[in-house]
Task: structure prediction
Amino acid sequence: MLALIAGRGELPTVVAEALPTRPLVCALEHVAPTTLVPDYVFRLEKIGGLMRWLKVQGVTQICLCGAVRRPSFDWRELDVPTLLMVPRILRALRRGDDGALRIAIDMFEEAGFAVLAAHDAVPSLLPDAGTPTLSQPSVDAERLARIGDDVSAEQARDDLGQACIVARSGIAARETEAGTDAMLLAAGHEATGGVLYKAPKLGQERRADLPAIGPETALKAAEAGLAGIVIEAGGVMVLNLEETLRRLDAEGLFLWIRERPE
Result:
């Protein structure tokens, strides 16, 4: 049996609805899923208790999906099954996003669970390379994409965001903890005609926190005046692909699912 550790956003719902059998849905107390109703709500201080409950339910596979804001840690809430995990939990809270996720995945695996990526559970989330939109990348799009590659490498070194806006004159914005949508909403006139570039951090753990776009991304990219979206083939999930392409086509934007150069 599969259980989702669900955060915010569309991804947990997309995964749950695509599976032939409904998974169990678990969620941190402070991060309720956007549309799914959790079967089990837990605090970080009781993750050991969560693992025990999952085993009683017959769960063998875990999928971490959706946006999660880093929780605080309250010693008063600690349960007995979590006691031995405390040093690793505190170490995870001090690390960047990728480091924290690696520790979380290790803890689930050591408890006997197989950890699946969302795209392992639903392979169609990663579309094939190419340009499936009516609009095609301009001659200048490769130059902008290569700037995006460089920014992505810098973000990986600093364990920061997974997206940026590359204007025709250069970098217009970098993703922060506020997310891609906030970056697009804040984009100024200098972003007009540029591209949204999105890719996983080089070397990141890909079983969780893989970047994603969807219909809302398409809409906000159009509102920002961008010419298109460039995503890494095999590295960025597309939620509700048909609807995303429909919105991009309606706005005249391209989607380039690009093989990232070595």
